[in-house]
Amino acid sequence: MSNYSFFSRRRFFTYIKLLFVFLLTSCTKESNKKVIGYQKSFLPESFKKLIPTFWNKENVNFGDIYEYKNTNKYQEIDYLLVNDGWINNVKFDDFKNLDKNLFLKLNYKSKEYLKSFDEGIRHKLFPIGVIPYAIVIKNNYYTRNIYNESWDLLLTKELKGKIILPNSPRILLSIAERIDDKNALSKLINQQNIYDDKNVLDWLLNSKTALAVIPYSLCQKYLKIDPRISVVFPRTGVPLIWQFVMSKKYSNEKPLLEWLNALENYKALNLLKKEGWYIPFENINFENYKTKNNEPSQECWQNSWSLSLINEEEKAKLEILWGNLLTP
C-alpha cells in the first residue's frame, strides 16, 4: 500500500469524524433553540433578560392568541408564560404535564394555590413568579397621619375621592372582604374613587389623589427616583398576581428545566426582587434579599391571597354586579 493511499484514507476518516461532530453540535444547538411566548407588558425587564439569549421570543396578546392571523406564531411556541388573569384563555389540551420533581421546588403558598385548579390542569402550570399588590401613598399633608396596617385605611374620611383603585371587580371585592366593615364595598363605591390600571401613577403624581392600589412591579421604578411617594403593605395581606410557565405537548422539556434551575441564584433573585417580582421556591427566603424599598413583611405574605379561576357564567354575573354597583 502506498503512503499516498494511507494518508488519503486517514484524511478521509478524519473528515468523516469532523463532519459527525459538526452535525452533532448543530443538532444540539437546534434542540436548545426554543421559542417562548409571553405578553411583553406583563414582565419586568430584569426577567426578560434572564430568558436564554438563544431562545426566540414571541410577543403574545392573549386577547387574540388563537385568531387565524396568529396561527403560525402559536404553533411555533414551545413554552408559554401566562398570568392568572389570562389562564381561562389558554387551550390546556395543547400542553403537557410537567415533571413531578419540578413541583418539589415550590413553597407552601404556591402549592396551596395550585390545589385550587382542576386536577387536569394543575400539573401543566408551574408558578414562576408572584407579584404582590401594594398601596402607594403620596407623601403630603393628606397622608402624613393615615398610615395603617390594614385595608381599613381605604375608608378614612380624609381620603374620600382621593383613591385610585384597580379596574377589576374581583380585586376590589376581595379587598372589601378584608375591611372591618360589612358595608365596605358600597362605601368604597360611594367614595367616587378613580378606577384605572394603566395610568395610575400619572393620576397619583399629577392630581389631587393621595393613594393608589397597584401591582408592586408597576411602581418600583418610580419609588427609586421619586421621593414624593411611599409604599405600604398591610399586615392583613394583599392580593397576589401569579405568573406561570407551560410547555407544549411535543416540546423538549429539558431546556425549560435547565433554565428554571438556573434562576435559583443570588444575582437573578436580587434583580427580580428589585422590580417587585418574587420567585416562589421553597428554598428562597425573601427576607434574605433586601432592597431599599419597603417590602411585604412575613406576616403580610402569610395573610396574602390569590384569586381562583372563574368560569364564563361566574364572570358574566360578576360583570353585572360590578355594573350595578357603579350605576348611580
Architecture overview:
- This protein is α/β, with parallel strands linked by helices and 328 residues long.
- The protein folds into 2 domains: 32-130 and 242-288, Periplasmic binding protein-like II (D-Maltodextrin-Binding Protein, domain 2, 3-Layer(aba) Sandwich), CATH 3.40.190; 132-238 and 312-326, D-Maltodextrin-Binding Protein, domain 2.
- 37% of the residues lie in helices and 16% in strands.
- It has 13 helices and 10 strands.
- It has helices spanning 3-32, 45-50, 71-76, 108-114, 119-122, 169-176, 184-189, 200-206, 216-225, 254-262, 266-273, 298-303, 312-326, and strands spanning 35-38, 56-59, 79-83, 126-138, 163-165, 194-195, 211-215, 229-232, 239-247, 305-306.
- Strands 1, 2, 3, 4, 5, 6, 7, 8, 9 and 10 form a 10-stranded mixed beta sheet that branches.
- α2 links the parallel β1 and β2 (56-59).
- The longest helix is centred in the N-terminal third of the chain and has 30 residues, at 3-32.
Brief overview:
Helix content is 37%, strand content 16%. By secondary structure, it is α/β, with parallel strands linked by helices.
Which characteristics define this entry?
328 residues; alpha/beta; D-Maltodextrin-Binding Protein, domain 2; 2 domains; ten-stranded mixed beta sheet; globular
